[in-house]
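Sample 3 of the quickstart, ligand magnesium ion:
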Amino acid sequence: MEKIQMTTPLVEMDGDEMTRVLWQQIKDELLLPFIDLKTEYYDLGLPYREETKDQVTIDSAEATKKYGVAVKCATITPNAQRVEEYKLSQMWKSPNGTIRAILDGTVFRAPIMVKGISPVVKNWNKPITIARHAYGDVYKSTEYRVPGPGKAELVFTDESGKEQFRQTIYDFECGGVLQGQYNKDSSIVSFARSCFQYAIDTRQDLWFATKDTISKKYDHTFKDIFQEIFDREYKARFDELGIEYFYTLIDDAVARVVRSEGGFIWACKNYDGDVMSDMVSTAFGSLAMMTSVLVSPDGKYEYEAAHGTVTRHYYKYLKGEETSTNPVATLFAWSGALRKRGELDGIQALVSFADKLEQAAIDTIESGVMTKDLVGLWEGETPAKGVNSLDFLKAIRTRLEETL
Ligand code: NAP
Ligand code: MG
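Result:
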């Protein structure tokens, strides 16, 4: 069989620990035999981030800006224990944070669904994709413990030094708490564009919700910016595709999401997204079956798995023990990136390979062959057979070869 040719390279961001092991196995078993894989390789593994003083992370994000599509392996975000373990000269920042800041993107997380593993919410028969606005709000707030009686005010001074407004927040008669939050129009605009862009890409409805009835300036600004951008830049394309932009109050959204059958994107403000993404991913079954893609407002894409480097399994692997780590989300990061590359470059063979690769992985699980994390969730007819990661990938390969 002739290998599929690529024209533009994918930006390949290698990572750490168990997922780094899976990364190589996925390439060896499922990609390199079938594709003349063209990548521009960046080693985001912690040792090389240390060696380059984290420049490699910045370079990989710049390359994503240049080429448009990246695929990323999970990486360690150092904490004090990691600084010790890897003898780091600094506690380097989260690579995902650095890349997101450079691309100004929004993260979309979606579950991979298989028959035999059903979501806790029985009527969810299509995936729900969550988009979290990862900027500002409570995550960048300033807060105080108020020690006792006194007046709290909200003051804004413009850049010329002129006080524009001053308002009493509360006249405290006793101790309490106080918090100041902000967000920026430019960040909300980018968030809105990424969401509309991704809805068009995936041909799904977009839902958005805030508490604008209570928060008449703060949350209302989110609502207004989304509506203006939608009407001006995206409505025509949505109409053409027959998809919808739907705005409602956050409490109404929560109720509707639970009653829905899924199949849409749910855009969330920062805090809502933090909380709801954990609820939705748990209800769909497993973090190991959750994909994640960073989409920039100007249409650059970085695909990855939603889970981390699976450290506990890696320590077993280092001791020579067999591990059954689930490679599906990492595999879907590759297929997502290859499909997007194929779409952008007009290489139908690459798009169709990505489809077949995903289907082979789903069919393998649906036939009862899976990694051990899924065995406990399995409700299928055939008894589940828990296998190690490499045997699981080989089973996918056998199925894939039948369809090529
Ligand atoms: P994790 O790597 O997601 O793993 C947490 C636990 O979830 C695992 O111990 C395992 O449970 C289960 N799990 C996750 N993915 C799995 C898979 N593919 N197959 C089977 N089981 C899976 O989270 P963590 O242990 O909190 O973090 C480890 C490292 O990853 C940290 O250094 C963190 O900084 C990094 N991290 C990176 C990213 C990213 O790059 N996007 C995201 C999150 C965390 P059992 O042990 O019970 O089997
Ligand atoms: Mg959370």
